Structures are given as structure tokens and as C-alpha cells.
Amino acid sequence: MSRKVEILDALIEIFNTKGLDANFSISELARKVDIGKSTIYEYFDTKDEILTQAMIRIFERAIESVSAHEPNLNLPFEQLLKEELHYVFHLATESSNIFKYIMPMQSEALPKHMKNSGIGRELRKTAQKFEAMFTSVLTKGVEEQYLHVDDIAIQGTLFAALISGSINRLSNANVEQQETVNLDQYIDALYDTILYIFK
């Protein structure tokens, strides 16, 4: 492993422990890698450059996963929705630090220096893909007459927000309570809630 990657991975470890908004000092990062502070600047020009490259490393994996994912619209609505909920939940648990940034309406929560960067644009595209995915699932539910929707655009956004908020809350509950919620039961309950709201 190159020293540059080692430095980035050490920062990612700090993020995994303290969250993406964590403040860190170059001294702290150097201690973690067991090198001198000046050595870090042999690989990076500024603290912002280290931060940006570490975040890009974190985000790329999740962005690739979402970009490659396509819902199977040939499935019946209930199976389709439950499979998509499983997919999103697993993404949230595997990438809990970045889940909030790739869900619809959340990319504005990005740190300021990331919003107009290439990664910021990719995250916004990823959020749009998620919203399109949720809208296609909602459309399938309407076509099969499980759901009643007056305005797909507006209620598609509500549908996406309901699902992403529920999944985000479940991910946090698992961390906070140090116990695992039964995912199948949770998804069954969320499915019933969606049928009730959009009946």
C-alpha cells in the first residue's frame, strides 16, 4: 500500500469513528499514520486536498453501486418494492457515513467545499437516480392498482422521502440500540404503511 493511500485510509478511519463532519488536524492524522506532519505535505498540497480525496474514495464505491443498480420492473409490485427496500437498507448499513448524501434532497447537506466539486455533481446525479428508482416503483404500484396517486412527480418525491427517512432511521436505530431490528419484519411493516398512505 502506498503512503498516500495509507494517509487517506487513516483519515477514512477517523471519519468512520467520528463521522464525515469530524474536525481533524494534520498533526492527528500524522500521528495515526506514524509519520511527521511535513511528510503528509509531500503527498498533498493542502488539508482540503486530503479531505477531498478521502471523501472521493469513500463516495466512489457507493456511487458505483447505485449507478449499476436497476430495479427489476418485471416483478410484481410487492416483491419489487421489498427487493428495493432490501437493497437500499444494505447500502445504508454498508455506507452509513454517506447514505444521507446520496438520498433524494440530501445532497445539499454536503460539506461546502464538496458541493461544487466533481464528487458533489456525481452525488446529486446519484440522488436523482434514487428518486427515479423510487418513482418507477411507485408507478408500478399505481399500474397494479395497489396505490392511488394523483401526481406522480409530487407523490414520487414524498414516496422517496418516506422510504429514505425510514431506512435512515432504521440504520441509526441499529447503531444506537446495539441490536439488530428484524429487517424482513421492518420491511413488511413499511410496505403496509406505504399501502395505507397511498391507498
TrEMBL record:
The keyword DNA-binding applies. It comes from the Bacteria. Residues 25-44 bind DNA. It holds the Pfam family TetR_N. Keywords: DNA-binding. The keyword DNA-binding applies. Residues 1-62 form the HTH tetR-type domain. GO terms for molecular function: DNA binding. PANTHER family: ACREF/ENVCD OPERON REPRESSOR-RELATED, ACREF_ENVCD OPERON REPRESSOR-RELATED. This is TetR/AcrR family transcriptional regulator.
